[in-house]
Amino acid sequence: MSMIADPIEHRAPSELLGALFAQAPGFMAVTRGADHHYVLVNEEYKRLCGRDPTGSTMAEALPELQGQGIVAMLDRVLVTGKAFVGRDVRVRLNVAGGWDELVLDFAAQPIRRIDGSFEDILCFGYDVTDRVREHERATRLQQELKRASQAAAMGTMASTLAHELNQPLAAAAAYLAGARRANERKLCDIAAESLAQAEAQVQRAGEIIRRTRMLLTDSRPRRERAALKAMIEDAAEVLRASGHLRDVALTIALEDAEIALDVDQVQIEQVLVNALRNACDAMAGAEHKRLEVAARTEGNHLHLQITDSGGGLARDIDPFEAFRSASGGLGIGLSISRTIVEAHGGSIRLDNAPSGGATLSLTLPLRAG
Fold first, then answer.
1. What is the reported pLDDT for 2?
2. How far apart are CA 143 and CA 151, in angstroms?
3. How many Cβ atoms sit within 10 Å of the Cβ of residue 69?
4. Residue with more model confidence, 152 or 323
5. Residue 268's closest CA among 338, 332, 174?
6. How far is residue 271's CA from residue 324's CA, in Å, rounded to a whole number?
7. Whose CA is closest to 261, among 297, 292, 293, 291?
8. Domains of the chain, with CATH numbers?
9. How far is Cα 139 from Cα 159, in angstroms, rounded to an integer?
10. I need a surface site. Which of 256, 285, 300, 303 has the fewest CB within 10 A?
11. Span of 34-38, 43-47, 161-165, 343-347 with lowest mean pLDDT
12. CB-based burial of residue 297 (10 Å sphere; 0-12 exposed, 13-18 middle, 19+ buried)?
């Protein structure tokens, strides 16, 4: 003869509810009265507490809860008749002679009596300690990775500054040398102009330091309306002072001389300096050194191209790989330039030009946002 379990419909409602209460995957308990006397407690609740509090008051069974806000919360539920729902509630329990901090998601639901008063509270919920601790471990790991990233960023910033400051400081040195020669020849006006130019380049170096630090700490670019023609001319002037444009035929072809953009002017000028300098370096061995800067607008975007007459790009070189040797006209300048351009919502790429040499293509929004 086979044994068949009683179907649910043959079990009394009270028996069914009792079975569901006892077997619930979460912890459940019913307390009664102002002293929160435990009337019903399921197995999960007992496991959580490390003891069976049935028949005892909360103060007797779990004295460590005093001062943790749990008893005060249950008092409010009885007085107000309003349920409490808590997430990630931390509770310290003395389990098996040792203290353990648990993290709980639970609700405390007052049970209304026939006369409308509240005496019993149903508490039910889940132990989410493992989930929360895993999240905290992941958060700590992210923080450690962030600290490591910040340390790497500091190294990047140091290398970037060493690279980027070379240009304005070299220009300042050239202007100071010119001022010294002019002074020796009693050419006061030329000396004064050279000193003013040197001062401007030193100030530019200071701005580069500040803006690079902002860039590497994820600060947004400080945008202002800037004329493209003026930025190109300023970048070219830096390279003239450093000697990079010596023997180079530079052509600037703008669709509109009045093109202006919402950009961090110092950062974008540095992108232009890097691009022009890389192009000049790439033409070091060329018989004819030609450099063309062309710009046009389309909708809300600027499209700018810088084309040189150098030897072009080797197929196996990633021109944007940071810290690559700059002997071929590449290097950290392109890597930091891409970071700057992308922070402005633009894009930058470097390709071989159909006529020989290489073309750097830069796209930037004309208006921010």
1. 44
2. 12
3. 13
4. 152
5. 338
6. 17
7. 297
8. 8-127 (3.30.450.20), 223-369 (3.30.565.10)
9. 30
10. 285
11. 161-165
12. middle
